[in-house]
Amino acid sequence: MNKQYIKKGVAVVLSVLMTASLLVGCKKDTDQPQPTDPAETQQNGGEETQGSGEEGKKELKGTLVFAHFNNDEASVLAKAFEDKYPGVTVEVQITDRANDAYVTAVTSDIRAGNPPDVFAAEAADVKRLVNYEGGYEDLSAAPYNAEELKSKLLPYTIEIGRSDDGKIRALSHQGTPAAIGYKRSLARKHLGTDDPAEIAEMFSSKEKILETAKKLGDAGVNIFPTWQELMRIYLGAREKPWVVDGKLTIDDKIYEMIDLVKELRDNGYEGEMNAWDTQWYAAIEDEENFAWAIPTWGLRWIIIAGMEGEEDNPMATAGEWGLAHAPTPYYWGGTWYGIAQDSENKELAWEFIKFLTLDEEQCEAHARKTGDFTSNLAVIEKLSKDESFVHELIGQNPYEFYLPLLDKINPNLMTRYDGTIEDAFQEAMKSYLAGTLTKDEMLQQFKDKVRSDIHDIEVD
């Protein structure tokens, strides 16, 4: 997930808002779930089957090399696997994603014939890595048979983990549907309600967003701190991805978004900030900015990360934030895991990926402990019906809230070129919104940049 930009003291915040009171009714995570699959496989480094009769259980042994771009996520997952299987050591290799360092490191190791056994792929990189020659193992084939997992894991995450030849090559342990996060006190004061359904209606179309922005703007409140919040929402509203049949494609929703954010900017209705900057984080705490694009992980890594753990901060008050549905269901971020084709430890690597995605006890424990949103359908169903599973920051059950969005997410909007294209788009848009380019000039700059950066697609 997109957490490499986080620069604040998250640990202090989490201890205040998550560990103590994030989820009402949390289970203690002291007892690790026991394996339930008595089947035997031959692991590199050895595996023994203990017990007798129907109660025999699997004991895994060996060392697993696990590459990731975010230690906060990787270390928790690795430790959980080691706790369940004490005979296993997980060596975590961390490389930051900045300037493409992580992808460069992983692909260099693949070319050198010394890849990690399991390596992660962030949403911006997953289509590149699942299609990288000699990279991920084909999980659709035996002995993995990942095609059988469609009834167990979020379907859109499975489709995103496919390579262009139709093979499943990576699986995700999390779902990342997204919504609009808003400050309830500002909603009550300036919009007359903080009810999520009514707020959603106020954001349900371009016209409604402009109407809501004017109400807030008249009171000196920005509807969004940056136009990039709307970019995230509108990217999920498209019918077509950035590249169709080898050609750069600009969906009609992108043109609608361009006009909408320009009108917001010209009227002073958005905060003119840049996402992930210090100013953007600081706006989480103020009373001049109303709403953010919030994926499942955004409660923790955007809102809570921006609060700095100030006990007297009114925006840190329990229930001060709310979630409302966006005009179109969308998702943002996610992490996928696959096995290196040249790994000599594939059986153990597969056990690790199954543990992350299919072990229901582990998935539930991880969700309760971290607030993460699992991709495991059985656990999603269970937690969505748990009336005690309430995120104190929003006063809502995030699983119940995000559940209706899951089967509406379009996985076909993602391409291997998205990161490069969206960087070029944002660069051009910033100049346009600053008034240094006309709309036509902005679009031309965008296309020229894509043409210069990507040589295997056609740009009109």
TrEMBL record:
Q: Could you tell me where the Low complexity compositional bias lies?
A: 40-52
Could you tell me which residues belong to the region Disordered?
28-56
Which top-level group of life is the source organism from? Bacteria
Q: Which residues form the signal peptide?
A: 1-24
> Which InterPro entries does the record match to this protein?
Bact_solute-bd_prot1, Rhodanese-like_dom, SBP
Instruction: Output the PROSITE patterns linked to this UniProt entry.
Output: PROKAR_LIPOPROTEIN, RHODANESE_3
UniProt keyword terms in alphabetical order:
Signal
State whether keyword Signal applies: yes
**Name used for this protein in its record:** Bacterial extracellular solute-binding protein
> Domain Rhodanese spans what residues?
118-148
One protein family per Pfam: SBP_bac_8
